[in-house]
Amino acid sequence: MSEHLPLNAFRSFECAARCGGFVLAGKELGVSSAAVSLQVKNLESYYGKKLFLRRGNKISLTDAGEAIYLDVAAALQELSRTAEKLNKSRKPGYFVISVLPGLSELWLLPKLQQLSEALGVSLDIRVENDPIEFEQGIVDLRLTYDARYYKEYYQTKIFTDVATPTCSPAFWDRYGSDDGTFGAVPAKYFLQNRWGPAYASEPTWDDWFASTKSPKGLGDASTISFNDTSLVIAAARRGLGIALAPKVLLRDDINDGRLILPSDVSLPMKYSYVAICPHGKLIKKTTQRILGLLEGTRDTKTALQEWAQSLKYASPVYTELSRSGPDHGPIFTIEVRIDSGETAIASSSSKQNAEQAAAKALLEKVLNG
User: Fold this and answer.
1) Is 259 found in the same domain as 132?
2) DSSP 239
3) What is the pLDDT of residues 303-351, one digit of tens each?
4) Rounded-to-integer distance, Cα 336 and Cα 342, Å
5) Which of 88, 107, 134 delimits the end of a domain?
């Protein structure tokens, strides 16, 4: 196959033609009418032909649209039959989670037992790169980095992260310095993380050295590079060098002493880690519960502090503005402030929860501009 076929666009076209409009097609597909219209425009660009005549809210097939409709409908029906065969091998009651390779071992795996017990269902974990197809309802939830491929689906942030240097204790004993600088580390041991095939704007070692105003530059001296984040972390764990990796994914290795953080300097990552699902899946209680559990894993105070540190700001300052209500049910109002002067305020019956809510509000404010 010489080209990547736009399957979502074909599906939107077929559904719009069969339903007679974008609104009804959107309801059937569980997306907005604007999303259906956009997919149809993508297909029109793909063919270089106009497929629908649009008159207000009414649509009708053009000659070009009629020429491909029967073939598209037949092809999608055949795909549906194939999917049904595959679905028969899927045990009933399984909740299917599709997860990015970098997240699977280092973030999701430590949580699996807790999630399975809390949900009371069996989990089917599928490790896949982006983009995936939510066709035929096989996948219930997608966990990934950056939501750009899934704009028509429901999405929620799980956590934001920073890229930080990490290495094994033995490596640092051999090449590290007491002042925490990397001057004695040979350039060939700075492991290059290419962040996967779809990203080119995430932090590099050159970015990190520039942020420290260090004259050291790696050029082409580094001898090993990886296009998988979990693999570059595994290489650092084995003492092959020092990696620049997402801090949240390092948590278990740091706690267990397999890796250390030799520097306090970190760089903000451009996007957030997100959970994605079709809007139609949101009505399922299991989906609602797992989204709540995943969102509950975010420690927003830590995320805000790491973001502030990456910009050389002091730690965020939390101030109790007021405490109201009876002693047995007080309401705390907390303000959080960072060095740039930006603030956020939140209230809760728990001081800790109010601080977390304020941190969440401020983090979303600074990250979204």
Assistant:
1) no
2) T
3) 677 677 757 788 899 999 999 988 878 899 999 999 989 999 999 888 8
4) 8
5) 88
Amino acid at site 220: D
Q: Is the domain of 155 the same as that of 213?
A: no
Measuring CA to CA, how many Å separate 105 from each of 228, 230, 231, 270, 293? Answer: 12, 8, 10, 22, 18
Helical packing angle, 63-88 and 7-19, nearest 10°: 110
| pLDDT attached to residue 1 | 37
Task: Give the Cα separation of 29 and 26 in Å (integer).
Answer: 5
Which range of residues forms the domain containing residue 79? 7-88
pTM greater than 0.90: no
Q: What is the CATH number of the domain that holds 252?
A: 3.40.190.10
What would the pLDDT profile of 210-259 be if each residue is shown by its tens digit? 888 775 665 556 678 888 899 999 999 999 999 999 999 998 899 899 99
Are 282 and 292 in contact, with CB atoms under 8 Å apart? no
Q: How far is Cα 226 from Cα 230, in angstroms, rounded to an integer?
A: 9
Find residue 124's DSSP bridge partners. Answer: 96
Strands 331-337 and 317-324: antiparallel
Q: Give the pairing of strands 267-268 and 273-277.
A: unpaired
Do 245 and 166 share a structural domain?
A: yes
| 67/61 Cα distance (integer angstroms) | 9
Question: What total of structural domains would you count in the chain?
Answer: 4
Residue ranges in the chain modelled with pLDDT below 50? 1-2
> Which position has the token pair 């962040």?
195
